[in-house]
Amino acid sequence: MRIEGPRYTERFGAVRIDEVQKVLELDSGRAGELSPYESVAVQKIEEDVIKDFEEKMLIVIPTKDEKLKLLEGVISGIPHECQILVVSNSQRKRVDRFKMEEGTLNQYCHFTQRQAYLIHQKDPVLAKALSESGYKYILDKDGLVRDGKAEGMIAAIFIAMMMKKDYIGFIDADNFSPGAVWEYVKCYASGFYMAGSPYAMIRIIWRYKPKIGEGVYFRKWGRVSEVTNRCMNSLVSVRTGFETDIIKTSNAGEHAMSLKLAELISYASRFAVEPQELVSIFEGFGGVLPMACKSAAKYGVEILQIETRNPHIHEDRGTEHLRDMLLPGLATIYHSKLCEKETKEKVMSELVQQGAIGPDEEPPKPQICPPPKNIDIQKFTKAMEGYMETRSALRSRGK
Ligand code: GDD
Ligand code: MG
């Protein structure tokens, strides 16, 4: 793969935010000597290097009642070296969609001879393991994991820690294009290779996110992303005193982190999770508030933003859903300890303009789950390890 090197890096305390890097070539040919120009402006990342990173990565697919054909397509796009974990919150009552997902995955893994795990978010064994590890923040009053994509993601971080993976990457299950999924993972691996710190996050930005109506319009920005990026940039600009538009991925659902970083940051419920990850990094390492971890601060936290070639085509859930996503995302910025009057006003004006809240209302406080760093992973592992074997798609076909 050939990717542009970062041309500019914005620094905020110990955080480095790299300018968007574009994918130049999906396949950059055989391994070989690089031209001098190559390592300065352009990075060629060899196949074997990418595979080395893929081997250390858990790819998590959060899913809730998605079409099985889409889920299977997404799985088929994930490079063979990666471990796959599907975290499902699909219905089990009227129609057992989870059972159907299990059947699809088992068949797929049988024929490709690859390993994948599937776990239900409401599985009581998972809830018990979380509780025993000391992390009850994502459990509801029934003692099971709450609904929400973020809740599934957090549970997956624990499973990645248990599996001793170095990296975790997320990919939504409603993607129509297996080729795009493949490219996301290649970008994650390349990003970790390029990152100058073991505390790194790779966030995907799409070249196009087509709108399919009467024809196809190759739109670049989602409406929610535009607004959230503006407010997130303001949060940084007001603190550094230099206006910036460096952040282009506040809502990036497709993103990956080193586990070292994943353990140190806090997570918001549901769809506010991605903006909150950035807010948490800025709070913990921006240098305005006390540093969240001294050794991480020494290396610095690096955020890479990579622009992919494949367009992003996913299920269209309508404008109501977009508004539901905007409010909690902006609320994480508004309620951050870093948020000054100027950014608060910007957030309010955007929310009122979009009709998400009234002029006299405040955005509701987000529900924040603390960093997983202090959990007892041994207790979690004890409760889960044997059980995960039974959640493996390959084994359950009798391998
Ligand atoms: N495990 C689990 N639990 N998965 C869920 C849940 C849940 O409660 N709710 C939704 N999902 C899954 C969906 O099935 C899908 O695969 C993925 O999470 C994202 O949900 P969508 O409903 O497709 O979200 P979206 O397309 O509007 O938003 C996506 O992109 C945004 C950026 O443009 C998400 O990834 C957002 O988090 C992201 O900000
Ligand atoms: Mg979607």
Structure notes:
The chain has 399 residues and is an alpha/beta fold. It has 14 helices and 16 strands. The strands form three sheets. Strands 1, 2, 3, 4, 5, 6, 7, 8, 9, 10, 13 and 15 form a twelve-stranded mixed beta sheet that branches. Strand 6 (57-63), helix 3 (68-77) and strand 7 form a beta-alpha-beta unit. 47% of the residues are buried. The structure holds guanosine-5'-diphosphate-alpha-D-mannose (GDD) and magnesium ion (MG). Magnesium ion (MG) is lined by residues 172, 174, 314-315.
Report a brief summary of the structure:
With 399 residues, the protein is α/β, with parallel strands linked by helices.
What brief labels describe this structure?
single chain, 399 residues, alpha/beta, 12-stranded mixed sheet, two-stranded antiparallel ribbon, 14 helices, 16 strands, globular, binds guanosine-5'-diphosphate-alpha-D-mannose, binds magnesium ion
User: Which small molecules are bound?
Assistant: guanosine-5'-diphosphate-alpha-D-mannose, magnesium ion
Global mean pLDDT = 93
How would you sum up the major sheet? 12 strands, mixed
Number of strands: 16
Helicity range of the residues?
40-55%
Percent in strands: 15-25%
Helix/strand order, N-terminal first = EEEEHEHEHEHEHHEHEEEHEHEHHEHHEH
What is the rounded Rg? 20 Å
Q: Which structural class do the helices and strands define?
A: alpha/beta
Q: How is the topology of this model organized?
A:
Layout: E1 2-4, E2 9-12, E3 15-18, E4 21-25, H1 36-41, E5 42-44, H2 47-55, E6 57-63, H3 68-77, E7 83-88, H4 97-112, E8 116-120, H5 124-133, H6 149-162, E9 167-170, H7 178-194, E10 199-206, E11 211-212, E12 216-217, H8 223-240, E13 255-258, H9 259-262, E14 267-268, H10 273-285, H11 294-299, E15 301-308, H12 318-334, H13 341-353, E16 368-369, H14 377-390
Parallel strand pairs: 3-15, 4-15, 6-7, 6-9, 7-8, 10-15
Antiparallel strand pairs: 1-4, 1-5, 2-3, 9-13, 10-13, 11-12, 14-16
